[in-house]
Amino acid sequence: MADYLVASSGFVLAMVALGLVRVVRGPVAADRMMAAQLLGTGGIAALLLLAAATEVPAVVDVALALALLDAFASVAFVLGGSQAQAGGPDATESHEHGA
Amino acid sequence: MTIALALDAGLAVLVLAVASWTVGARATFPAVVGFVSYGLLLTLVWVRLGAVDVALTEAAIGSGLTGALLLGAAARLRAGEAPAEERPGAILRLVAAALSATVAAALAAAVLFLPDPAPTLAPAAAENAAATGLGNPVTNVLMAFRAMDTMLEKVVLLLALVGVWSLAPDPLWGGRPSPSHQSDPHGVLAFLARLLPPVGIVVGIYILWAGADHPGGAFQGGTILAAMWLLVMMAGLTEPPPVSRRRLRLVLIAGPAVFLIVGLGGLWLDDAFLAYPVAYAKPLILVIEFAMTLTIAATLGLLLAGPPERKLGR
Amino acid sequence: MVRDVFTVLAVTAGGFFFLAGTVGLLRFPDTLTRLHALTKADNLGLGLVVLGLLPRMQGPLGMLKLVAIWLLVQLAGATVSQLIARAARPGGPPP
Fold it and tell me: What whole-number distance in Å separates Cα of residue B251 and Cα of residue B257?
């Protein structure tokens, strides 16, 4: 049972790795903003599977913290990425941006 | 090859691949995305190595907060002078690569050729765990055996904050940091910033509390609280406070101050700085941790909010 | 025994949805469709994994934490996908 859970954790990680290919290649900034979502959801799934496989309940706390911080990181990416899209080589933008 | 070994090997290769992409990225946004991804993958590495406290800290600081800090810095660079179009020359990059590779090789050699069993104080720390009554050995080390280091770290955080504040122009000293984003109060971001922080606050306090006997502690809890505060500020639901406000400054010094008071009390009641009387060790440590969590949350939030950019009156 | 079979089935189904989400992320032609694949399929995969791991947790606090994690990821996914979609619109974000 534990072996199966570790194997599924590895599978989820492999899916995350493949998804990162899109993040690396993605032509638009929005494709890169998805990285936080991808790694967050996949990472949390992998952590939960590892927690159950190794019977260390504290790892669930790591997944909980990761869920919160991943939401925060996604928002930071969206705000920062929109500025990167809008700013570009034009250095005279002020720092007021609409939502 | 067992499954666990295959998982670890795959994880190591993935971490290296993401690191190479981060270093080789040509624009700041993809580089920061790569850096945050690297941090998230490192969390998994720490879990595989059995260091759950470090994994918690990596998830908290290394991914979300550092990513937001780097993006904020990139935005300020973009809004300032023209972005640097020159990249460092080939010789400089070669030298940097050679130095980095040497350091990495030295570290790898140090780890691979450690004497077996490696010199460690862990058994001594485990033996003396009864001195504080806490169940988590990491918290024991941080708050009792090496409490001096922890206290001085908080002072260093304050110094960093003062450094960031000193970047403000003279007439704006004491003012408010500018909000990073103007947002629609009925929009999606405001919705998230209303729903998530209450849950986040509960989780942050839970992780602080759980640090006594399980992985967790003041630093991780404080970082989660800071992230929730920053989310509310980023959504425009609240303004960053003026840095001259007295209550804010009291919160900022609360952590190191309580630590210092307890330390001096130990000098007076026992006979060493930061000695805890055994009967009161656990309550004292909890009081210190509570104060430290507030300080860490306020300091990290203000570090990311940046230097004052608006006058006090607005 | 029944618990183990249930866990294996649910985790396998979850893994399948993760696979579907990644395939969509890689092969869909457009940012918005890729976003859809990522948030919907991966979230469902996580939900199935959580469902499969629930019987293995000791005590109600562990189970509560798992469900809380899934709900938080759902909330974050729903709102962040809206934000990313607005940033990805062909005209750029609305003023």
Answer: 10
Q: For C25-48, write each residue's pLDDT tens digit.
A: 888 888 888 898 899 999 999 999
- Quick: pLDDT tens for A36-83: 889 999 999 999 999 999 988 899 999 999 999 999 999 998 888 777
Q: Following DSSP, what letter does each residue of B134-177 receive, concatenated? A: -S-HHHHIIIIITHHHHHHHHHHHHHHHHHHHTTS-GGGTT-EE
The model's pTM is 0.90
Asked whether the beta carbons of residue C49 and residue A45 sit closer than 8 angstroms, the reply is: yes
Q: How many folded domains does chain B comprise?
A: 2
**Contact with chain C for residue B122, Cβ under 8 A:** no
Q: Which of A10, A65, A83 sits opposite B6 (nearest CB)?
A: A10
**Domain assignment present for B111:** no
Does B55 share its domain with B127? no
B49 belongs to a structural domain: yes
Residue B37's domain comprises 1-85
Q: How far is C38 from chain A (nearest CA, A)?
A: 7
- Residue C86's pLDDT is what? 84
Is residue B79 located within the same domain as residue B131? no
Helices (H) and strands (E) in chain A, counts: 3, 0
Cα-based distances in Å from A74 to A38, A63, A71: 10, 16, 5
Min Cα separation A68/chain B (Å)? 7
User: In C, which residues are within 8 Å of B196 by CB distance?
Assistant: 72, 75-76
* Average pLDDT over all residues of chain C: 89
Please tell me whether residues B74 and B156 are part of one structural domain: no
CA atoms within 13 A on the CB side of B303: 23
Q: Which of A18, A29, A68 sits opposite C72 (nearest CB)?
A: A68
CB contacts, 8 Å: C42 with chain A: 37-38, 41-42
